[in-house]
Amino acid sequence: MKSDRERVVITGVGLTAPNGNSLSEFRSNLLNGVSGVVPYSVRYFGETIAGLCNFEATRYQKRKELRVGTHAGSISIYCVNEAIADAGLQLDQDYARNRVGVFIGITEHGNVETENEIYELSKYDYQTKYWSHYHNPRTVANNPAGEVTLNLSLTGPHFTLGAACAAGNLGIVTGVQQVLLGEVDVAFAGGVSESPQTFGIFAAFASQTALASHEDPAKASRPFDMARNGIVVSEGGAIVVLERLDKAKARGAKIYGEIAGWCYNSDASDMVLPNPERQAECMKIAIQRAEMTPRDIDLINTHATGTPMGDVRECQAIAAVFDQTCDHTFVNNTKSFIGHCMGAAGALELVGNLPAFDDGIVHPTINVDELDPRCELPGLVLNQPREAGKINAILNNSFGMMGINCVLIVKRFEA
One of 282, 303, 315, 375 is an active-site residue; which one? Predict the structure, then answer.
């Protein structure tokens, strides 16, 4: 049996999503079928749809800081500060600032700033003397996590992880590992996305015929539905506070759940098309490391993005791992509400399901009018929430471009 020093728990959550700026608001909208996908106009690309956030950035930043920094950095700062408040942490009192780590996953960073600065430069006949002197600190890969350390005067380690759409999960896994290694005493970890702020991502998905469309924006993100036609590009962020159990208990912290197991691997087969064998392998190893069996998993949050083959291949992987035990394991999807929050997706989708430990309810996948028979799984929850009784373990899938996979398992905390 592991000692309390070897157990890592989640004690705080901070988030902004297209349909909520706190866990309570986010959870309520997931249970009530409220989408955050809206009409959107992008420079050069034109009219489209997206999942957009509406958080109060000036709660934690001055307007000058917002002008100098980045949108991803601002999302990160908001989420970390909200997580600290939710956890009841008192920096300097509970933890020295040089023992605090910041580990944030992201899909891509710097595209927004580069596009904006080139656009501004075009107004001056592309004379580079007008190029912003803030460009370099805005676009370095560690920026979002780095902006958090500046905002909170944190002197422990920080880095931003580029892990495509598996980045949110991997940010949390990295935070857990750093705590267990003793590199930090507490970690602020998760993922963020600023993707809708760049026209390039819309143009690229459109060229791949992978950009979702629908006359009703709220119904555009429709994983598993026969009429699904692609991804809804979204922004957002979710950061959790990770502490060793002994430290959390000592300060009387509330505990959302305990990190049970994880795995990350690579498909090594295609830049975009997922490999169900490697996805299945990732789930199996995470379950083994959690010292569980597939039958111990009560809820699977799927990565499914609404692309025709991506959804099918993930369902194939789930069926291969869970086989006949899947009849008592519930399966849902969060992107149907908020679109694909890219680097934030895994973290947002995980925290949106954490309240199931308390209320025993599984939020559904919405917008499924006709289920694709290739995506049919015994425990799939569609369109309406399901009373599940006691949820003891949640498995969260995140899969990204270049074939990166990350699976994270969180279990109900038992003293």
Answer: 303
Reported as a single tens digit per residue, the pLDDT across 108-126 is 989 999 999 999 999 999 9
- What pLDDT is stored for residue 350 in this prediction? 98
Residue 309: which residues within 8 A CB-CB, separation 6 or more? 273, 274
Decide if 340 is catalytic: yes
Q: Which of 415, 161, 411 is nearest to 262 (CA)?
A: 411
> What residues have CB less than 8 Å from 201, skipping those under 6 apart?
108, 111, 195, 233
Using DSSP's 3-state secondary structure scheme, residue 414 falls into: coil
Enter the tokens of residue 288. Answer: 């083994």
Give me the CATH topology for the region 262-411: Peroxisomal Thiolase; Chain A, domain 1 (3.40.47)
Model confidence, pTM: 0.97
The rounded distance, in Å, linking the Cα atoms of 118 and 132 is 10
Query: For strand 330-333 and strand 158-162, is the pairing parallel, antiparallel, or unpaired?
Result: unpaired
Place of tokens 């001055």: 62
DSSP letter for each residue of 350-365: HHHHTTHHHH-EE--B
53, 109, 158, 165: which one is catalytic?
165
303 is catalytic: yes
Pick from 176, 46, 38: nearest CA to 103: 176
> Which is the catalytic residue, given 109, 158, 340, 363?
340
pLDDT beneath 50: ranges in the chain: none
Structure tokens at 28: 């309520």
pLDDT recorded at residue 1: 81
Closest CA to 148 of 111, 184, 187, 174: 187
Going through 124-235 in order, the beta strands assigned E by DSSP cover 158-162, 186-193
User: Start-end ranges of CATH 3.40.47.10 in the chain?
Assistant: 4-250, 262-411
Would you state the structure tokens that stand for residue 67, as one six-digit string? Answer: 């002008």
Instruction: Tell me how far apart the alpha carbons of residues 156 and 96 are, in angstroms, rounded to a whole number.
Output: 9
- The pLDDT of residue 72: 97
In terms of CATH architecture, what is 4-250? Answer: 3-Layer(aba) Sandwich (3.40)
Calculate the alpha carbon distances from 170 to 35, 107, 112 in Å. 26, 11, 23
364, 386 Cβ separation under 8 angstroms: yes
For 215-247, the DSSP string reads SSGGGS--TTBTT---BPBB-EEEEEEEEEHHH
Please state, as a whole number, how many other Cβ atoms lie within 10 Å of the Cβ of residue 360: 14
Active site residue 133: no
Angle at 179 between CA 16 and CA 256, to 5 degrees: 45
